[in-house]
Every structure is written in structure tokens, then in C-alpha cells.
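Reminder to self: C-alpha cells first, then the designed residues, so the page reads top to bottom the way the pipeline ran.
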């Protein structure tokens, strides 16, 4: 007897995993596109190499305006900081990029706050919409707790694109334990999130990102005036810990993370009593933050 292959179990069929239905593009557009709003277009593609690369290319060709949103059900060449790869099974997460053009009203030196702003917006949205606590690891990681341990469930990558910035966000939503790329990875589902429906989660993140971006832009990019610095510090799991900064050139710096400065750099207090700002590099948490009494 020959088994018939139905459309739902055909290779590559977007309904092949019923636990991971495809995003509803029309519903996303109805929920996000409005006159006077930030978001100007929402496109969902089945698969691509990198949404950041695609959106940057579209912006360079004059085919994308500020507020363009590009979402992929699967990325084959997703990128993180330091050229690290980001991969996950189709429809297991949210992989998207947005184009932002802060304009002359925001000094370029303050654009470095955009990935931190995206982190605050994403973490606060997930806390409300997914029902799971999400912490921030400086500068761009999203952490959840799985079996009592911090795990990376997402990351943010901001890249200049002409007169604007493409901000990419990757978030593991329903990734299962056997699908984890590394033992230190996690997902909303593994963290016990009661809501893992990607449509409302994506809408919540984009609405939160719009709210924070507009406040930041109205404040001329001043993180203090719009209280972005305060919100980031409140949600940052790195502050208060002893960390190792793995700097460009193979150098390491160990110290207590005591602050995020006005330029978005992490300030480390070293053993010799000097406070050193770190603007680039990998941060490794060496000690848990002291518990509050």
C-alpha cells in the first residue's frame, strides 16, 4: 500500500507543524498600520538569508521607507553581533527587522541607544503579552530563566543603512529542548510562557518599540529626558555583577558593572579602583547580582 502525501505533510509546507502555524500577514497589517503611526509596511516572507540584509538593500534601492517591517518565518543566514550566526526551525520564533530614520533631530552619537531601546521595548512587551519575565544582558541579549538558569532567548542587531538604522530582532518562541543550538540557549516556551502565539507577540513588540522610539525621538535622543536610561538599568541583568569584557584585539577586562553611561556604554569598576567604559565586546557574567533584602 502506498501512503499518499497530503498537502499538510508535504516537505516545506507551512502547515506541516500544526504547533507552529504561519503568521497572519493581513491581521498584522490591520493591527499595526494606521495613519500617523510609525509602521508603514509589513511584509512576511517564508524564508530568507537575513532580514537585516534584505531590508538594508531595500532601503539603499529606495524601496523601503522609515517604518518598514520585514519578517521571515525562517532565516538561513541570520546574524548576531560579532558575525555570529542565528538559526532556528521554521516558525519557531520571531525573526524580523525594522527601518528607522531618526533624522536631524537626533544627533548621530545618540543612535547607539537604538539597540538598547529595542531591548527595553521587547522585554517590556514580552512581560505583558507572553507572561514571562525577560531580562537584558548588555548590550543586546534577551534572557529568560529556564530551570533556574539564565538562558539567551533572543538578540538584537542594529546596523547603519544610509541615513537610517536597520534594527533586527530574533526571538526563540517555541524552540524545544532538543532543538537548542547551544546549551545556553532558551525560548519563551521553555521558560514556561503561557502565551506563545506569535501574532499577538509580534504586534505587542512592535507597538512597544513604536512607543519607546517616538518618546526617544521627541526627546532628541536624550536617554535621560525620555527615561530610557532608567528603564534599561531597571531591566538589565548585567548591572551589579562581576563580568568579564572580552574586548576587540583579544584583550579582557574584569570588573563590576556599575552603570550604563550617557552613550550607552557599560561602565566597569575594576579592582584597581578605575571606572572604565566599554563600548564594544562580549560580556560574560561571572557572578550573580546581589539579592535584595
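Designed residues (293 positions):
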Amino acid at each position: 500500500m502506498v501512503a499518499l502525501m497530503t498537502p499538510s505533510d508535504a516537505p516545506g509546507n507551512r502547515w506541516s507543524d500544526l504547533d507552529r502555524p504561519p503568521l497572519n500577514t493581513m491581521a498584522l497589517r490591520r493591527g499595526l498600520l494606521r495613519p500617523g503611526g510609525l509602521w508603514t509596511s509589513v511584509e512576511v516572507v517564508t524564508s530568507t538569508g537575513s532580514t537585516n540584509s534584505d531590508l538594508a538593500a531595500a532601503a539603499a534601492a529606495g524601496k523601503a521607507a522609515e517604518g518598514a517591517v520585514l519578517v521571515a518565518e525562517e532565516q538561513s543566514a541570520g546574524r548576531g553581533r560579532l558575525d555570529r550566526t542565528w538559526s532556528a526551525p521554521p516558525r519557531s520564533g520571531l525573526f524580523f527587522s525594522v527601518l528607522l530614520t531618526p533624522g536631524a533631530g537626533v544627533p548621530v552619537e545618540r543612535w547607539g541607544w537604538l539597540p538598547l531601546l529595542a531591548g527595553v521595548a521587547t522585554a517590556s512587551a514580552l512581560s505583558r503579552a507572553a507572561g514571562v519575565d525577560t531580562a537584558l544582558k548588555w548590550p543586546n541579549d534577551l534572557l529568560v530563566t529556564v530551570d533556574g538558569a539564565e538562558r539567551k532567548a533572543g538578540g538584537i542587531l542594529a546596523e547603519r543603512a544610509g541615513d537610517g538604522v536597520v534594527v533586527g530582532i530574533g526571538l526563540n518562541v517555541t524552540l524545544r529542548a532538543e532543538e537548542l543550538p547551544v546549551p545556553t540557549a532558551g525560548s519563551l516556551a521553555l521558560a514556561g510562557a503561557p502565551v506563545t502565539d506569535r501574532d499577538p507577540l509580534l504586534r505587542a513588540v512592535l507597538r512597544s518599540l513604536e512607543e519607546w522610539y517616538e518618546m526617544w525621538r521627541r526627546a532628541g535622543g536624550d536617554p535621560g529626558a525620555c527615561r530610557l536610561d532608567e528603564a534599561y538599568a531597571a531591566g538589565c541583568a548585567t548591572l551589579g555583577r562581576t563580568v568579564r569584557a572580552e574586548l576587540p584585539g583579544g584583550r579582557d577586562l574584569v570588573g563590576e558593572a556599575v552603570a550604563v553611561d550617557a552613550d550607552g556604554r557599560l561602565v566597569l569598576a575594576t579592582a584597581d579602583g578605575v571606572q572604565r567604559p566599554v563600548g564594544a565586546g562580549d560580556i560574560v557574567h561571572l557572578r550573580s547580582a546581589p539579592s535584595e533584602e
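The longest strand covers residues 149-161.
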